[in-house]
Amino acid sequence: MILGRRVEASEFESAAVPHLNDLYRTAVHMVRDGIEAQDLVQNVYLQAWKAFHRFEPGTNCRAWLFKILFNEIHHYRRKWFTNRTVHEGERTLEDTLPFEPPIPEEIKDEDVLAALDGIPAEFREVVLLADVHEFAYKEIADTLGIPVGTVMSRLSRGRKHLRIKLADYAKARGIPELKQEVQES
Hints:
Layout: H1 9-16, H2 20-31, H3 34-51, H4 61-83, H5 93-96, H6 109-117, H7 121-132, H8 137-144, H9 148-172, H10 180-184
Helix pairs in contact: 2-3, 2-4, 3-4, 4-8, 6-9, 7-9, 8-9
């Protein structure tokens, strides 16, 4: 790695921009707000551009960007919890309107993503990186700054939470249970 190397915009664009949609989708699932996710991803690309002269061409730019994203998400959460105010007695429109969703024939991608949003954040981030973005355990460990064993444990527990959420979702919507031999595999 050469410190202070000259970086061309086209070099940055070709290495970093292809991962924009994956970063945005992950940010939306982590912070549950599209506008905040856009801001986070914009900050990721700003930080990446500022530090791109230190990025070693040929290494995993995707993993590097995701590491920056998860650092940004952790900063966002810390700021959000610090600045959060709770207004008791406020009711949202969702609280006051009765809604009966139609009974689906099968569980759709949106249902899986909604169930994923319902699992605790430390498991959700590992499941997203492993099962959605197909990162290796080592890459996830490096991205999140945790040991590989913790990645494996959180992935197992996150998948279990997800299975329970999806089974509850299916049951609530009248989707028949899978046969026992399919559930065991």
